[in-house]
């Protein structure tokens, strides 16, 4: 079972935020409630745009770093355009 997830959310201002979690639904709800990352607190509501699941935390964290290193255009392609 894949317990480690990397997700991309779109904030209300159109920006994209990438994060790691073990519970995607809970984490997105936290972001929406203004209790997530400092970056997303003033940018609610958020919309889940992309999720990838991994067997290990290290694999998920590596992928999170890789996604964060992508350009805006590459991120948009990853989430299916915007």
TrEMBL record:
Molecular function (Gene Ontology), one example: endonuclease activity
Keyword Hydrolase found: yes
InterPro entries listed in its UniProt record: GIY-YIG_endonuc, GIY-YIG_endonuc_sf, UPF0213_domain
Domain GIY-YIG residues, every copy: 2-77
Keywords: Endonuclease, Hydrolase, Nuclease
Protein name stated in the entry: Putative endonuclease
Organism: Halorubrum cibi
